[in-house]
Amino acid sequence: MAEPPPPPKRGSNGRLLHKTLAATANLANLLPTGTVLAFQALLPSFSNSGDCKILNKYLTTLLVIFCAIVCFLSSFTDSFIDRDGKLHYGIATFKGLYIFNCDGEEREKWKDLARFKISCVDFIHSFMSLFVFLIFALSVSNVQECLFPEAGFDENVLVMNLPLGAGVLSSFLFVIFPTMRRGIGYANMNFVER
């Protein structure tokens, strides 16, 4: 019986590949997957499966706007595990991190919350996430039938190809401009007070 080949040595190419794969794996946390899931769950009811009356048009428009706002703001959420092992969630501000799940006394323990303040990269991520969500939302057939029933062939071709282009562009920018944010629902929580 032949022995399996030895594992490849980790040289500089191995580290580069590891970094590339790690950055690509984090795209699920950067793209608006949770918002898209909620949007997909509510859309058939709100849009009456594309057979819109006037109230359905308002509900569909409000759903798109609400999910877009959530998608934009979720890029500013962050979390950390304190030295006691307790997980804390918050939203980044220009002064630092505002923690949701603690009281005032507990908040005073952390003097270094300013390191979580909003940066330029946060805005790049939030606008790209918003862009990807809006492209996706406007390309769904129920939204098109409800809000744009008069769309012609050229508009349909554009809407069919735009999500792929937006996904590639946003993935490229997310890899070039990585973020240290660990938003709500981030899968890798193996860190203590960054």
What does this structure look like?
This protein has helices spanning 12-25, 27-30, 33-46, 54-74, 104-108, 120-139, 141-147, 153-176, and strands at 77-81, 87-92, 97-99. It is elongated, with a radius of gyration of 21 Å. With 194 residues, the chain is mainly alpha-helical. A three-stranded antiparallel β-sheet has the order 1-2-3, with no helix packed on it. Helix content is 56%, strand content 7%. The chain contains eight helices and three strands. It has two domains: 29-75 and 119-187, no CATH class; 77-117, no CATH class.
Q: What does the largest sheet look like?
A: 3 strands, antiparallel
| Number of discrete helical segments | 8
Beta percentage is: 5-15%
Main-sheet strand order equals 1-2-3
Termini separation (Å)? 48 Å
Shape: elongated
- Overall mean pLDDT stands at 76
- How many structural domains? 2
Topology as a string of helices (H) and strands (E): HHHHEEEHHHH
Specify the structural class: mainly alpha
Q: Roughly how much helix do the residues carry, as a percent range? A: 55-70%
CA-based gyration radius? 21 Å
Number of strands: 3
Low-confidence segments: none
